[in-house]
């Protein structure tokens, strides 16, 4: 019998709709039920493509005895962290403060007043490796609740007060300058993995926002060391197992420091950010590898994640079903259904599988090319495909033939599950990536896909007052309000689309969103909150300027505010961006890996950012050449307007006439412009890195 989650739209919650656990969605009614019964709350937070969430679901939440105990002694709440990042952020902060670590699934025990008092992540079904079983935890928590409730309530109240008392004093402290950015670069250099690229050890995550900072720093200063770190990191990732050598696109992270074995889930935000980073790397270096990876990643997003409505789905699972004869280890798992599921089963290969598809001679060639060995690099003798080096001219066609045949064979395997939820913020990142990649590489189809996704966000996620809904699914808007990252990332996507297409409506929509940021998310001191002033009040109002897997809402909004101010000359938006950047001044020199997007925004602010007005009919070849030169200019965070002189859609075009009847480009800072140029080569020289 289905529980209350059967009426939800989140794919993650729907995966639990048939659990014997009597789950509630996050709601006032759930806490009222706990108060009425006098029992504590089990809060379980996860997401659809989370491997260990599936494991714990199969082991514990699908177990009738465990579920019966939960139902009798607790009220059970299940939350999709991607739908409710505010709930996730508040209790993850408490978990990390209490245990020094975090992760998903997150398991938190709450009082009926939503105050946390006991924390954990994954708990096994039986005691293992020093960890208690989930049933033992349940019994221990309920025993404490029953026998020492006053003590438990006192602890919970103290934790809640400590959380509520935390606030960031940053904001309005002045923007980071040359000194802070130089210190941030030095700190990154110390943490850089010279041998394998990237930063730190295992597990190793794609440092998308940090690479963008390095590229922008090179563009502003000409620093070759910054470019080298960015380029070497991108090459190491592109040649490793974290990159899907057959179908394109990146996995979530590498479990080792060499980028060999990934955690196989594929997230929209990672691929959108990395697609844009590789396109920006190509823009500076002309690297064939960067071009190929940018385009393959864009094509992956369109092919695998695009929804029928024109948006982009959130993720592909790490797990997929084992098929007989493919030699994968059998393991019980749950991706929301029945059967045997194995992490990475869709992606890995053994020598025998290569031979079955390719024949002996080509299989031996493929094994050498993609690093497939008898011992394997993964589990049970299977290997994750890598591409340690490009094939020579004589073998390039053969590599492509092998890749195509393996990809076709892989299509016959059971595919990973897909989370079809459309998240506003992540679609904003995808819009920016696809628009720019399409423009750089003459792929109008990618620009069209970006435009369709933007249309969906306006049509389905924005209400008449331009307030955003966080998610939609199957063409139906969800019920959860947008958070700061939604406003910042969607505005970023719209601004990039405006610069590529010359359609001023996207600048207008970005302005609507950023006005709401100023009205609803900014504190009196200039700091930013993750939720709106009128959002549901939790035990703490979440506020985090540091990057996680994607730019923080704080720095995403700061970047979009800065770009919008450059487009329009708005002092209010510029001032808000500058005040928000005070946190980057404070954190950048000490923790640059965790505020990379903020550092990238700071680079743009130090450079101006440059405002490029290309005036002329868009059908004119001269206008198109100048527009392309502007798009390919690497000046950090530059904004571009293109269209007829005096166009009312773009303030940058006002008072920017043609030059002797010819299309012209004006490069400006703070609306003060250098002499216009009419030749694309002259514009390229003005935008060369280091100028």
Descriptive account of the structure:
This protein has 691 residues and is an alpha+beta fold. Helix content is 48%, strand content 10%. The longest helix has 18 residues. The protein is globular. About 2% of the residues have low confidence.
What percent of residues are in strands?
5-15%
Average of pLDDT? 92
| The CATH C-level class name of the largest domain | Mainly Alpha
Total beta strands: 18
CATH topology of the largest domain: Glycosyltransferase
Low-confidence stretches at least 5 residues in length (pLDDT < 50)? Answer: 324-338
- The structural class is alpha+beta
Instruction: Tell me the helix content.
Output: 40-55%
Broad shape: globular
Biggest pleated-sheet summary: 5 strands, mixed
Question: Which features does this protein show?
Answer:
18 strands; five-stranded antiparallel sheet; alpha+beta; five-stranded mixed sheet; Glycosyltransferase; Glutaredoxin
What is the topological layout?
Elements: H1 11-15, E1 23-25, H2 28-37, E2 41-46, H3 51-61, H4 64-73, E3 75-80, H5 85-99, E4 106-110, E5 116-120, H6 134-147, H7 149-165, H8 178-191, H9 208-221, H10 224-239, E6 253-254, E7 262-263, E8 266-267, H11 268-285, H12 288-305, E9 313-316, E10 319-321, E11 341-343, H13 351-358, H14 360-370, H15 393-410, E12 418-423, H16 424-440, H17 444-461, E13 471-473, E14 476-477, H18 484-501, H19 505-520, H20 553-568, H21 571-580, H22 582-587, H23 596-607, E15 611-615, H24 621-631, E16 639-643, E17 664-669, E18 672-673, H25 680-686
Parallel strand pairs: 1-3, 2-3, 15-16
Antiparallel strand pairs: 2-4, 4-5, 6-7, 8-9, 9-12, 10-11, 12-13, 13-14, 15-17, 17-18
Helix pairs in contact: 4-6, 9-10, 9-11, 9-23, 11-12, 11-16, 12-16, 13-14, 16-17, 16-18, 17-18, 18-19, 18-20, 19-20, 20-21, 20-23, 24-25
